[in-house]
Amino acid sequence: MLTYVLTAIGDDRPGLVSTLAAAVDDHGGSWVDSQLALLAGKFAGIVRVDLPEERAAGFLDALPGLAAGVGLQVEAAPAHPEDAADGAPAGTGLVLSLLGQDRTGMVREVTEALHSQGATIDSLRSLTREAPEGGGMLFEAEAVVRLPEGVDESEVREALEAIAAELMVDLDLDATA
């Protein structure tokens, strides 16, 4: 089996996921893992698939047809065998939650603080929404981060709390379950 990571983007419309799933299945592949989202009328996804080695080339050749058929641009990158293995990644997992008045640079400052501590962002979801009673726009984010072995959670918390005060946001950091 060969493992590929697919990235897909296109204008949202019914049938995009089923068309991609059919292409995987038609080539004897298995849909292993995925993250799919809709933002501003665009569908985007990242999908890990396993394909029989003898059918992988046919699958890769079929991907451009998805753009012509349903408007879904799909790129495939081979996954490294060590990255495709199941199991939890090494390191301490934390969930970061942030809520505050929206302003430019928030994501940059938070992610730079995480990077300075050696953290890896496994997932990040953010949005803006109207504050209650006409209080402007709020920015809300939740991230799952992983600290490398030997990095103390308290140091990460300290780095984040310093910028939380500067950004005037509520920031929580909790261990993953």
UniProtKB/TrEMBL annotation:
Coiled coil: none
Domain of life of the source: Bacteria
Organism phylogeny: Bacteria, Bacillati, Actinomycetota, Actinomycetes, Micrococcales
InterPro entries: ACT-like_dom_sf, ACT_dom, GcvR, UPF0237/GcvR_regulator
Residue ranges of domain ACT in the record: 95-174
Name of the protein this chain belongs to: Glycine cleavage system protein R
Species this protein is from: Brachybacterium rhamnosum
Gene3D superfamilies: 3.30.70.260
